[in-house]
Design a protein that fits this description.
Elements lengths: L13 H7 L8 E5 L4 H12 L3 E6 L6 H5 L4 E4 L5 H9 L4 E6 L3 H7 L3 E9 L11 H7 L3 E4 L10 H16 L13 H5 L10
Length: 202
């Protein structure tokens, strides 16, 4: 009997690595829903540090201010604006390369109209409800990839995770990129800083 040679076992984090290697590039347009919260403010700084254009939405009037102070290029109040129309008027029909969403339901569904072919969608919450049943067809329409993250599913002992944390902590320690906390975005100190890109201290 001839035995097949054993298959090489993929590393547990290899699939995640494929996603993370799709780093945000300069001139990419990133859409972040719920941009006014802590996660959204940190993501704004990360994307701006990479040179991206950051567009965001909020569901409560008044929450636009802090993301703009953290570097966002455009923030829309969904209670006052049709965000898809506004974004298309300013950036074109399908400008978004990366969508980061914590809302789900109608907001996520409408956002697919803005996605570039081969873009990527990250879902980390469902504040407005679960994604609609047409999720698969929406992804296939433009060959989109989709990630759904639950922090409890991450292998916090993996080499990839540990090295990422070390890198971030070293950057914070060295303050080479003038990291700021999300809570400091609206501070007077921030307003006096020179015009540079900021990266969140997460």
């Amino acid at each position: 009997m001839i035995r097949r040679p054993p298959r090489s076992t993929p590393k547990p984090s290899s699939a995640a690595s494929d996603v993370y290697k799709r780093q945000v590039q300069a001139n990419d347009i990133v859409l972040i829903h719920a941009i006014g919260g802590g996660v959204g403010l940190n993501l704004t700084q990360l994307a701006k540090h990479a040179g991206a254009t950051v567009v965001g939405t909020v569901g409560t009037s008044g929450k636009e201010k802090r993301p703009l102070e953290c570097g966002a290029d455009l923030v829309l109040d969904r209670t006052k604006h049709n965000f898809t129309n506004e974004i298309q008027q300013k950036f074109g029909k399908t400008p978004i390369r990366l969508l980061i969403d914590s809302t789900g339901a109608e907001i996520l569904n409408d956002s697919f109209d803005l996605m570039q072919n081969l873009g990527h969608v990250v879902s980390y919450g469902e504040a407005s409800g679960k994604p609609y049943d047409n999720l698969w067809s929406q992804l296939v329409l433009r060959s989109l990839t989709f990630s759904r993250l639950h922090i409890g599913h991450i292998n916090h002992q993996s080499e990839e995770w540990l090295q990422s944390q070390i890198k971030i902590q070293e950057m914070i320690k060295n303050r080479a990129n003038k990291f700021i906390k999300a809570s400091e975005c609206a501070s007077n100190h921030f307003k006096k800083l020179p015009k540079i890109n900021f990266l969140a201290g997460v």
